[in-house]
């Protein structure tokens, strides 16, 4: 059974994530599905709930731009892009730091990092520490923008869903930033031209 909770129950939600449970919540893009970072059992639960292929990684959500370099390899241009667009609707895919457990990226050499522009999610991360987040839908199914849509796809597969409504059905822009390249892996509201202009 999946329990619907309110944003004001943030301490309960944080405790659930800390205990290895899977929670869905609204972000400034689409609904996210989250588990605790550095908890391989929780990551397995998230992958199974979503029926996500293990060849795909799950994004790491952080609270502070200064923390990006703890998990991914950065340079001056990467940090320039981060400062321009974060918090916001962008996910930076960077080379994974060797100190990061490869299980957390499903053994991919890269790690996707996002800082959300949602005060609720930032407050949640403040309580839980870094979390792994993917879209709250079954793989191959439409993104979700409210708790009813989440329940339609994930009822009984996750512990909690936070009541809310997203303003957009468009997920974040995903940009690969390795070896000095800029490659858009998924386009959202931020385009390659916007990213290139940030470096001028």
Tell me what the structure shows.
It is a single chain. The protein is α/β, with parallel strands linked by helices and 200 residues long. 30% of the residues lie in helices and 20% in strands. The protein has a ten-stranded mixed beta sheet, sandwiched between helices. A hairpin with a 6-residue loop joins strand 2 (23-25) and strand 3. The radius of gyration is 16 Å and the shape is globular.
Q: What is the general shape?
A: globular
Structural class of the secondary elements? alpha/beta
Helix content: 25-40%
Which strands sit side by side, in order, in the main sheet? 1-8-2-3-7-4-6-5-9-10
Note the run of SSEs as H and E.
EHEEHEHHEEHEHEEEH
Percent of residues in beta strands:
15-25%
Gyration radius (Cα, Å) is 16 Å
Q: For the report, how would you describe the main beta sheet?
A: 10 strands, mixed
Helix/strand layout:
Layout: E1 3-5, H1 10-18, E2 23-25, E3 32-36, H2 40-50, E4 59-61, H3 68-71, H4 76-85, E5 90-95, E6 110-114, H5 119-128, E7 131-135, H6 147-154, E8 160-162, E9 173-176, E10 183-186, H7 192-198
Helix pairs in contact: 1-5
